[in-house]
Amino acid sequence: MSEIHGLAVYAAGAQLLAFKYDPGELKPNEVEVKISHCGVCHSDVHLIDNDWGISKYPFIPGHEIVGSVTAIGSDVKDRTLGERVGIGWQSDSCGVCEWCRQGEEHLCPQAQPTCIGRNGGYADRIRVNSKFAIPVPKVLDSENVAPLLCGGITVYSPLRNHGVRPASRVGVIGIGGLGHMGLQFAKAFGAEVTAFSTSKDKEAEAKSLGAHHFINTRDTGALKKVAGSFDFLLSTVSADQDWQGYINALRPKGTMCVVGAAPSPIQIQAFSLISQQRAISGSPTGSPRDLHEMLDVAARHGVKAITERFAMAKANEAVTKVKKNQVRYRAVLTN
Ligand code: NAP
Ligand code: ZN
Fold first, then answer.
1. pLDDT tens digit string along 241-277?
2. Which of 132, 160, 223, 310 allows an S-S link to 318, with CB 3.0 to 4.6 Å?
């Protein structure tokens, strides 16, 4: 098999540069995928900058991948040559632990992220365990569906797992890559939806995506005005927030779920949780089963990412724009 060519980071915060690697023999449970599109998730930016202290250089970022299957390992029975598939945050798991047996492979202690300790999707090809190459419904366009493979599942899973329904009052905090898909899924679940944003100019678009209300969080006192209003708050922000203000914005029995990787510990007054029976939780991406379901829901309810397209060779431009919060709403690299 020939070498895989991509763009790698060689040191924390550095520019992406040409990189190639020899993938060796195709393993019996693997598929090889020729990449057509790859979204630029903010987690790629955290990894590029070593914000989490776990990056090992050089590595090729990218974990919102769409492409077609070009090779199949000898044991693979679930995928076919030429099939269009999507690959998200996870590329492998042990397959035998309690969580894998329950179809919750994303909780496997040996879960392998697509671009940590292995090379991701800012490349021409990739190999993964075939279970993690998810068929993409025909009606979904490759460019608009790529961001669903990480960003989409990350907002879909908590809405589903926390039982959001038409009676729910939901707030989505941060209307970026994840948040703009969160608004669409919350609408699909039938909830009354509020967008919390620092960007006033996102109001009209947030409303067209499903928000009934828009709160500019730069307005002092904005959070106080909505105290006791929400059943479910989903934070997609990668910065520290007025967490106590958001907890206070929950109704009794309400939950705030954090999916954005804020840097500092979250401090909350215990009594504000106790007296109103409120909760705080976190959520990762999702299992292959969840990804199948999420893509099916997206296809049936018209959920898609609003994208800004960049040629793969312009990946550095895309990353810079994500860092400046200038992308509306997800950068997607194309080969
Ligand atoms: P993104 O496209 O950059 O969007 C983040 C949004 O947060 C921005 O568009 C902005 O929205 C808001 N924001 C940014 N800086 C802010 C600040 N200082 N104060 C308040 N709001 C701010 O990022 P993303 O790709 O959606 O990812 C968001 C976070 O989720 C990242 O930390 C990423 O690593 C994490 N993530 C987690 C998982 C998981 O499994 N849990 C999966 C994927 C991503 P407004 O302009 O509307 O304010
Ligand atoms: Zn991601």
1. 999 999 999 999 999 999 999 999 999 999 999 999 9
2. 310
3-state secondary structure of 266: coil
Question: 38, 42, 328: which to mutate for ligand 1, most atoms within 8 A of CB?
Answer: 42
The per-residue pLDDT for range 104-118, each reduced to its tens digit, is 999 999 999 999 999
**Region of residue 263 (phi > 0: left; psi between -120 and 50: alpha; otherwise: beta):** alpha
Residue nearest to atom 23 of ligand 1 (CA): 42
**Crossing angle, helix 288-301 and helix 177-188, to 10 degrees?**
70
Residues 135 and 168 in one domain: no
Return all residues near 104 (Cβ < 8 A) that are at least 6 apart.
287
The residue whose C-alpha atom lies closest to atom 29 belonging to ligand 1 is 260
Q: Which ligand is nearest to the CA of 150?
A: 2
C-beta of 206 in contact with ligand 1 (< 6 A)? no
Contacts of 173 (CB under 8 A, 6+ apart): 179, 196, 217, 233, 234, 235, 236, 237, 241, 246, 260
Residues 6+ apart with CB under 8 A from 225: none
pTM of the predicted model over 0.90: yes
Alpha carbon distance 217, 199 (integer Å): 8
Residue 66's nearest CA partner among 40, 44, 34, 94 is: 34
Which residue lies with its CA nearest to atom 46 of ligand 1? 199
Q: How far apart are CA 287 and CA 153, in angstroms?
A: 9
**What are the residues facing 33 on neighbouring strands?**
69, 126
215, 296: one domain:
no
Residue 100, domain extent: 4-150+286-334
Boundary (domain end) residue, out of 282, 304, 326: 282
Protein residues within 5 Å, CB atom, of ion ligand 2: 41, 43, 150
